[in-house]
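COMPLEX REQUEST
Ligand: zinc ion
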Amino acid sequence: MLDNSRLRIAMQKSGRLSEESQKLLAQCGIKINLQEQRLIAFAENMPIDILRVRDDDIPGLVIDGVVDIGIIGENVLEEEVLSRQAEGQLPQFKMLRRLDFGGCRLSIAAPRDFDYQSPQCLDNLRIATTYPHLLRRYLNQYNVKFKTCLLNGSVEVAPRAGLADVICDLVSSGATLEANGLREIEVIYRSKACLIQREGKLTEDKQALIDKLLTRIQGVIQARE
Ligand code: PRT
Ligand code: ZN
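STATUS: Structure written out below.
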């Protein structure tokens, strides 16, 4: 059982955000004894427990109040919020700050020979994506109807495999699109990692610790700029 008096921070266990998340906490002076396979790590010098999970679980853990704060990509956070809203929930959390890593964009990409003029060209097509809600919010603005092909990985191979006409996926350098014969045609969302806090009042000690961390994060990020 986790000790509820200690601040709980959720971060990605292994993936594109985990190294930078760990580094940020270390640069804030938190000494964590990380053991690769462990779900939970304890800070040695502060009352902090680190929960290491799949990034997709982090927004829910914060919104449901299971952890106090979380480090997560805005793309995953926003998709979870839209998904819960679609189910009639009112997901609540506090945005503490944007961080200076994990930058990427969520884009629609099509085979290179696709004749693209405007979002209307996507009407009634099948689009492969991990982010159906962000995609729907974007295309709704243009009254474009589409069919989805939900994939949690290998989205970029969907057109070649005949699963979808176009894709909507994360892009950073563009090399993956290029390697799969795809061309970026619309950027629908720009994302960075961010720090979020659960809704509701925390104990004074916990809130004071978060405030101290935020001041340190501010210093760390400023020093890197
Ligand atoms: O296992 P877990 O569920 O925790 O991890 P995951 O595999 O779902 O996510 P992960 O580690 O790949 O990404 C975590 C977060 O990093 C994302 O939610 C984004 O906020 C951020 N991020 C930043 C990226 C990228 N850049 C990125 N380039 N996430 C994924 N990509 C992938 C993209 O999906 C595509 O396959 O990289 C490929 C494109 O990269 P380029 O450089 O070729 O354009
Ligand atoms: Zn994930």
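REMARKS: Residues 100 and 224 are 9 Å apart (CA to CA). The radius of gyration is 19 Å.
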